[in-house]
Description:
The protein is mainly alpha-helical. The chain has helices at residues 2-34, 42-62, 64-71, 75-102, 107-116, 118-135, 139-145, 147-154, 156-172, 177-198.
Amino acid sequence: MARKNLHDKRLAWIKTGVFFLALLPAIKLAIGACLDALGANPIEKITRTTGYWTLTLLWVSLTATPLRLLFKWNWPIRIRRMLGLFAFFYGSLHFLTYLILDQFFDWEAIAADIVKRPYITVGFPAFVLMIPLALTSTDRMIKRLGGKRWRWLHRLVYLSAIGGVVHYAWLVKKDLTNPLIFAVLLAVLFGIRILYRLIGATKPVFTPVKRKTSRTDKPTPKESRPV
Ligand code: HEM
């Protein structure tokens, strides 16, 4: 019991720390905007920062399952939902910056952008795909959909991630280093999942991981989530 409390306390600290860290870029942008300190082109600064953090947090959320497969760590799975929702939060800010500050609801110009600018053509579906994932992230929706269907739906995250990285590569024009780093990391994360699937070492959906696997990892039935 005392050990359970210790695990819960540690996880609560990790969750709180991750929450504030993930919020930091938005706070910095808000302060910069209030102090008029976002540089010569504030809209570009907001668009780029929110785009970058959408991608980064999506990637961090995708490390949870590989970390469990490789090291038997379960605590990342327990903060994965929060990370995914933060990715969606930044994705929404990114899209809203474009919609409101950049285009000011000029739907014709937006439609033209989707057709003419390839990076918007792929960025748009990449963002739209995040919406059903965010909407079905609650425990209630997981129960309602059932593990199998939920898991299938949430594989869309890979399509969204691929769309996001192609969008990034398409818009940077010259130096492809950063998009390439994201692409390689995505391939590694996906590769680990595939490898474990091929060797049949993935755990069944919704099976709570046994307590003895690690000191820090002890999901309650409520928190044992599909992987
Ligand atoms: C409706 C959807 C989207 C629109 C309209 C959009 C639009 C834009 C625009 C206008 C830029 C700035 C381009 C420039 O400064 O030349 C940008 C940058 C970026 N976007 Fe998006 N985007 C969308 C979705 C996404 C999604 C879903 C992701 C990630 C998963 C993403 C990640 C990025 C990144 C990483 C950057 C570059 C950041 C940097 O320069 O460091 N975008 N986007």
